[in-house]
Amino acid sequence: MPRAGNAAKQTILTMAALALALAPSARAQYVGNVDTSKSKGPTLRATAVLEYTGDLEKPTASRLVPIAVWDGERYQPGGLYMAQPVPLTVLTGTQYVLEDAGTPKGLFDVKAAADVNGSWIAIGNYQKPPTPKEAKLKASRHPPVIVDDSKPHFAHVPTGDTKEGATSAKAENSAPPVDPDRPTLHQRSGEQSGGQNTEATNPAPPIDPDRPVLREPAKPAAGAQQQASNNGAPETVTQAVDPNRPHLEYGKPSEQESLGAPEKVIATLAGPQPEIEQIAAVSDAATRQPHSYEYSWSSPEDEKKMQGEVEAVAQQLLAASEPKPFGEVKRVSSHRRSKSRKAAKPAKPTLPTLADEQFKAYELSYGGGATLVFSATEGQGAAARYITLIAQPDFNGTPIVLFKQITSERDLNIVPRMKLIDAVDTDADNRAELIFALENNTGRHYAIYRVADGAAEQVFASGS
Fold this sequence. Notes:
The chain is of the alpha+beta class and 464 residues long.
């Protein structure tokens, strides 16, 4: 029994020592009070394309096609994100900023939405961007006068003060010569030398006519006083009624916006239309500083030279990928060619003629250089072929192709035609991506391409 008691006592002491040893480490792991109210949610940024015909400010018909929503980690389908049943991207009241290479061109307010063939499309109104008001500075009628008061000034000591007489005499002897431009005090005429007059010795400065003046408000009439007292406001407060303030009335408003059926308005832009115009649109909860992604050339000649080089590359790629006629067979001679006969040089391929050329240069990131996008058409009708290139110039200014897509009119349902929309910052990282419209014989959808590390890849594509 004594041995068991000693063993129990030793075990308790060991546990206590371990608790004391672990106490500092546990105390060191405490991070303090965490304020969960300041935690921020994910960065949501919606990207869409506004399709319209006519003028942008007063279009004949327009509809907003949502593409994707960046939730902070990945892209989500814009036509399905948080649909209950209407997706978040096309809820009534959502406002988009229309951009051209990052420069705002206006606002688009969503008014209604509809599900057309499994895709949610919105309609709304265009608004001009608000112009910032600049405060104009007015010149003062009395500009300030700068006075050099850097030199010290000594106070006058009366002659009767014997204690400080010697000190003041030494100070006067060691003092520098008096500045003739320093201000001096003059006694007014008629004042007593004894200093009985309490007014200031200097004349009063002129009164500034622009200074604010406190005035007593006019007292309202008896009826106004009674109304003010009923409203709980002081009697001396005057409240000017805004003539443009809204009024609440019963019944239907006299001027009500008529949008019509969303399905009918949206259906007017369905299918491939050559005359349709497109502009990128973004919606973000945060207010971000606009930034232009358009590349600035040093001279117009450099831009034309680079466009010519990219055009030559596109012609060579089209010539190399030209399909051969069906049933063409290469003939092989049965007799052995004599050694004296020289081999015929292969004929140079004829470069095709390009039409509908589109050349754009963007600076997708700060100091990232130029990113070139070129698209063109060769041929007409059923024999038409389409090419789209994404390239970047190297150190010598030679365009290096990062991405190419060649398709023909008969292969559109397999390989769609790519049309550039714009460069847009789709994931709120101050770096732009490229948005393309992918068109085939039945319709179109949109895709986002990211250019980084000398390559271009598709990161998201909406449903066709």
